[in-house]
Design goal:
The complex is a heterodimer of chains A (262) and B (301). Chain A is 59% helix and 0% strand. With 262 residues, chain A is an all-alpha fold. Chain A folds into two domains: 40 residues; 200 residues, no CATH class. Chain A is elongated. Chain B is mostly helical. Chain B has one domain. Chain B is built from 13 helices and no strands. Chain B is globular and about 70 Å long. The chains are: A mainly alpha (262), B mainly alpha (301). Chains A and B meet through helix 1 of A and helix 13 of B.
Amino acid sequence: MKSFLLLPFAVLIGILIGGWSPREELRTLRRELDDLRTKTANREKDSRFDAITRMVQIPERAANVPAPNRKPAAAVRDIDATTAPTTHVAQATTDTPTTVANTPPPQDAESEESRRTSPEDLRARIEEAKELWATRVQIARSQWLSRLKLDAEATALFDASIDAMNAELQASMQGLADALALGEEMTPELGVRFFNEMTTSLVRTYDDLTVIVPDALRGEASQLEITDFIDPAVAEPLIAVEHKLENASGPGGRRRFPRRPR
Amino acid sequence: MNALVQTWRVACYEWFDALRSRRALVVLLLYLAAAVCNMHWSINLLHKLESELATALQLPATEQAGVVSTALWKSKPFQRMMKRMTQNDLVLRDITGKHPVELIYAWFAFFYTPLLVVLVAGNRIAEEIGSGSVRYVIFRTSRASWSIGKFIGQVFMIGLALILSGASAYAVAKIRLAGSGTPDLFLNMVQWSLRAWIYSIPYLGLAMGLSHLTRSSSKATVMGILAITACFVLSILIRHFTTDTGWRAYLPHLGQLLPDGHKMLLWRNAPAPLIAGSATLITLGFCYLFTGYAFFRTRDV
């Protein structure tokens, strides 16, 4: 009977000690799960920056992080500002020297350096996207040349059209980066104008294709996913102003007020 | 083996004594009244809330309570709200979709059972020590058998009262609600009674353990009420002060010594948490009882 009286205490001690380790593991896992949920929730609140990077096919995080002391990627392609379409964004930055864009503000230098080592760093993401893009665009190009039955002359025009699109996109990005580097705020208006500029370049490429592609295959050409041909390097000017774009609020949700009937 | 037989006889005598003195009837009536009144008022409240909600949503008012709530369970915003309230995804997942009346009964059963247990059984040992009647029993049996026998007798008495109260609550729900008189709801409500019964065991052990310390039945009741209040307050404090780092991270382990630390396991549907929670709560009940018994073991009665 005496041993029976001690039995519940022994069982209780067993439960407490036996459950200690699983409880600790559970607590750690729950904390990690909460962190992940918070991160996911934050990520769901799309920033304008995410929208831009998504459009130019840059992954959300790099699988391989470059070394922290790595030199910046190749310089931005020289784009003649006068060849870029005259838009609000471009207009706002016509007089801006392009070198400004690659100079991060001194107060953010430290955070910029620490961020550069993370997989979320734009430079790392662009580098990775560029490597993938080179292979991917070759395959996509071959597939579409065959699908659209383009001859040598049309192929050259197709490539020229894609190159022109990338050049225009890069000019737009450079314009935005310069404007932000000069201290301009990433306002919703600026964002919308910028997106308009980018989509105009894409639409112009589709227009070019309708001329290049034979009439019988125009329907087929409209199936072409033009964003597959965007060179991720076009986003390189944004590296210098990444911090400003990340802090900008995302694209607006639903329209709060109905439009008046015209 | 002899000790077990003696324990069983004491438990049987506890029942016989309760029936002879009409005490069993009083306990049963108390539990039935609590369950019936709770169910009746809950349905009234639910019906009023649902009517108001239907008016606010510009929907036709429902004649029976529970219709709107059952539909509400299926809405994602309501599920998110409940998730924030319960702060326990697993419990929420298990209770999602259950009839609101069933859940209200379960909540009340878990709330009032510890209180009723302390009020009903908290003085059983103290009054026998105080009246001196214990002296006649411990000539024939060991003190341990007597304490355990009385505890087991009370455990089963409360179990029966809770199951009958669950059945009577179901009867009220069947009369008041349309479409809820299904066998599922009956079984579920009896099941919640059984879970509340398991949850009451550590509180019964606590109250009867404390009852070993005094000769006064009123003092035993007061001690029981204070102890149960302390358990609730400690559980709240532990939850409030727990952090992820430092010494406070170990507070939940202290909470394992309190019945409240295992309560949510009884709200789960999976067998593993149910069995583990039940075993721990029963063990806790015996630990509390034997701690009180340790003081009584060598006491001059």
